[in-house]
Design goal:
heterodimer; A: alpha+beta; Arc Repressor Mutant, subunit A; 4 strands; 11% strand; elongated; B: alpha/beta; Rossmann fold; Ubiquitin-like (UB roll); five-stranded mixed β-sheet; 23 helices; 38% helix
Amino acid sequence: MIVRLNTILQSNFKGSKEELIPILQKVQEEMGFLPKEAMYNIAKFAGVPESKVYAVATFYAQFRFTPIGRNKIMVCRGTACHVRGAPRILDEMETQLKIKEGETTADMEYTLETVACIGACGLAPCVMVNKKVEAKLTPKKVVELFGGKGGKGGKGGKIEN
Amino acid sequence: MNSSAGKAGKGGKVVKLKINFDEITIKANQDWKELQSAKKPVILVGTATCGRSAGSLETLEALRHEIKLAGIDCEVIEVGCIGLCYAEPIVCITKPSQPVVCYGDINPAKAKDLVDNYIIGDDPVAAYALGTLGDGSINGIPRLVDTDVFKPQVRRVLKRCGSIDPTNLNHYIATDGYKGMNKALGMDSKGMIEEIKKSGLRGRGGAGFPTWKKWQFCNDAPGEQKYLICNADEGDPGAFMNRSLLEGDPHALVEGMIIAGKAIGATKGYIYCRAEYPLALERLDMAIEQAHSHGFMGKDIMGSGFSFDLKIKEGAGAFVCGEETALIASIEGERGMPRPRPPFPAISGLWGKPTIINNVDTLASVSLIFQNSAEWFAEYGSKDSKGTKNFALVGKVKRTGLVEVPLGITIREMIYGIGGGILNDKEFKAVQTGGPSGGCIPASLIDTPVDYDSLAQVGSIMGSGGMVVMDEDNCMVDVARYFLDFTQKESCGKCVPCRLGTKQMLDILDDITQGRGKPEDIDLLEEIGFSVKRGSLCGLGQTAPNPVLSTIRYFRNEYESHIVHKKCESKVCRDLISYSIDQEKCTGCRLCYSACPTNAITGDKKKPHSIIQYECIRCGMCLEKCPPKFNAVQCIPGQIITERS
């Protein structure tokens, strides 16, 4: 893993303090999350203390320290979505996946997160599944997304495994 | 005056540029005209994020497939968003010597109809049409500018969105693009700032600070190195004006930044854009590269002696980074925490150098002012708020979308004119402007003009342009709680009033919405709210209590109803509502019985059921499952208290 990390660092960055956030973004993009082991190497590479790397990484909502599921579901909590029923969408997602917001299913299939706003407010409420936005959702449509009640990602579900 | 104003120099002298802009435009115009007067049909498909959410990529795919099957020579171009979110996916078709017809709600099946009837045949399928773009109509399809949704609008900043290919620089140039930069390169800073002053442009990010004044401060600040930053970290939930513009017309921002850079003497610029906007980032990247390859950016732009470079910085998800000093800290690779001002960034900003931070819409307006004139820009607007402004009109309106209106238009015109009224003809309750920093304006003030000062007067702010409409089904206490929950989570924690004040306020709002509210809570909320406003370090804390204070001001009765009667009249707050089954209407079909997750429903098959209240978690599944023909489950405000037997 360290070899891979060093390749990511050396082929994309010069190693300055200014690059700390882009470095963390790139590492997360490549590895899916920020592994504990990577933090020390990032610190050394950027020339800052490890505490600084943690300080920055924990500040921003984008960074995560645990592995992510194969499918990432982000429920929009924007104002437009909220007034058009986003809380019920989140409830239904939690019921369907049997996990809470911020968690990943045991089989590493799904990670459920919320996001402040994905900017598709005209089509609220919406959810971002991987890179695709599902718009104008209802709890019923959420069930369909997973191919029927309890049929997590099963036949007929729109979310591909 | 600063030496960094370049060779354009002092005293308003006009410098002749070494590269002839006219030659570039001639080439671009040719390209553009060829497309406009093409012998073959041209199809535009809106594939910005909102279009894609509604399935425009599938529509695009279907169109391409049908055209290929029919063997027709036809141009298909992906464009940005024309702002009619409610009608996405949107497709526009031009046939030789016919007006552009704009269609809404085009799914793959309808796409096939369009190809069969209008591309192959000659019937423009009026049933799917929203209107025609530009002049001329066909088969009774009205001009789009004559329809209710467009009539009150003045589309200037957004004029290219949805009608040009955002990845084709020639389309931008042929529609007056980079004309403003060309003009600006021949002017000096003094003349440029004077032009912006004449236009009356105020910051479009929300606070409405006069743009020229900000520029003047930075221009007057000593120092060789200065920076220009565009704040494209559109963090307000419920707003997407910047995203649409960046996706549909990225060069408008790039040009505005070159002009602004020239005016303040900055040679380096940053665009701080949120990572949640992947398509906008992609388009910006491409636009910057194109500007470079045409000599509009880089060293000695067009031979004017002025050099300027742009870099994109991806935001990492922190609302507080919309605050200028926090944004600067983030670019420097730090935690995005604000610092006390003064010194203001215009004097000491990025890396301690004079820095200007402008919003996307502000900079796009700068392009327009230089492409046309200050007088032209100021044609619209009210006394102290000039020009037009983009709004994301969303929430409970029939026609949601991205609209551009002259400042001074009333809220009524926006909601009932452009928006077509409230969804399902329910009753309009309030409109929220300015996101988490703004306030809720009640129905009684629906004739308030939309400008910086009028909105401030009624206790809200213009903000960056989010306009979320709420109806009778929205609980204002819940809305206040929603915003406080947001700002409390986004508070960076540096100053005590914001860190602890928002937490205390949220706790009280939790109590109120969960039935534990006390009569003195309202006064306490106001007291803490005013303290947080006065004592916080940055704009986030100083405005965080606004949604609470404005809802208390206009909807005190809702707070009282929650606290005193333990009732949520809008039936939103779960702990203050109940479900019950009408014994007359229930047929005992058992649909609710099997849906209930807590087995709170009892009753024999084919006999009326009832709900055991103390087992009920008020998830509403029973209401959802009850067939509309029976309509036996009802949700009522207030708690039904029953004892455990």
